């Protein structure tokens, strides 16, 4: 059974409202020991996320007016550009450097995930959207927790015994449906080592794919031997 976001998320997380001021946001980040906070509207719905990076825009650009020789870091200059109509890059003022409230500072709209989403789905969403954390929301977009990349790593902390039990279930099922299987498995620090024999090479490959899907499995060392290589196309002479 795959773990869901609800199994690994952090609950009881702090949030700020759209009108929360810059200093209060910074203080909350420090007090809570987190790098980002969800922003909720008057109805309690998550509308954005404000992070340390959002607040640091002000630091990057604060000397611009005082010192005409000041040149912001490359990442800051890149963020001061956006894509306009037709894909043309156009300049804009660095709004976040002048922002004073969460509504002005936050990244919006919020990229969120539901509690019943699979951990792998959350991981793919983070990778696809380039974010490090996701607010977890209910059916009404209300905040119920936060899940971070670090939280997702918890699925790999399962004991070798629990992984071995799941591996053995797959082997037992295979032995009951495919003839000619004699397989043993050992698990050490999440690595599964397979030994024994199967009739077809394809059976060995299928088992490896199935075991790699088990949560907590780091890798599969397949040392199985086979009697018939049904993956190699037969040679046809001219």
From TrEMBL:
InterPro entries the record matches: BON_dom, CBS_dom, CBS_dom_sf, Diverse_CBS-Domain, UCP036990_CBS_BON
SUPFAM superfamilies according to UniProt: CBS-domain pair
Name of a matching Pfam family: BON
Top-rank taxon: Bacteria
Official protein name in the record: CBS domain-containing protein
CDD domains on file: CBS_pair_BON_assoc (cd04586)
Coiled coil spans: none
Xref: Gene3D superfamilies: 3.30.1340.30, CBS-domain (3.10.580.10)
Domain CBS: 9-66, 106-162
Keyword terms: CBS domain
BON domain: residues covered: 159-228
């Amino acid at each position: 059974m795959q773990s869901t976001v609800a199994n690994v998320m952090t609950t009881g997380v702090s949030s700020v409202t759209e009108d929360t001021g810059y200093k209060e946001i910074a203080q909350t980040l420090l007090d809570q020991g987190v790098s980002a906070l969800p922003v909720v509207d008057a109805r309690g719905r998550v509308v954005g996320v404000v992070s340390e990076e959002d607040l640091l825009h002000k630091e990057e650009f604060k000397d611009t007016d005082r010192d005409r020789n000041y040149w912001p870091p490359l990442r800051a200059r890149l963020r001061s550009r956006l894509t306009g109509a037709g894909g043309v890059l156009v300049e804009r003022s660095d709004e976040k450097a002048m922002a004073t409230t969460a509504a002005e500072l936050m990244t919006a709209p919020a990229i969120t995930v539901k509690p019943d989403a699979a951990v792998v789905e959350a991981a793919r969403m983070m990778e696809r959207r380039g974010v490090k954390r996701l607010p977890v929301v209910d059916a009404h977009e209300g905040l119920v927790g936060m899940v971070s990349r670090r939280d997702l790593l918890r699925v790999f902390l399962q004991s070798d015994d629990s992984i071995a039990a799941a591996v053995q279930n797959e082997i037992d099922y295979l032995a009951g449906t495919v003839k000619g299987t004699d397989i043993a498995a050992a698990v050490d620090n999440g690595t599964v080592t397979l030994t024994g024999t199967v009739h077809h090479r394809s059976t060995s490959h299928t088992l490896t794919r199935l075991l790699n899907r088990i949560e907590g499995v780091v890798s599969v060392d397949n040392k199985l031997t086979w009697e018939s290589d049904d993956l190699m196309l037969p040679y046809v002479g001219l």
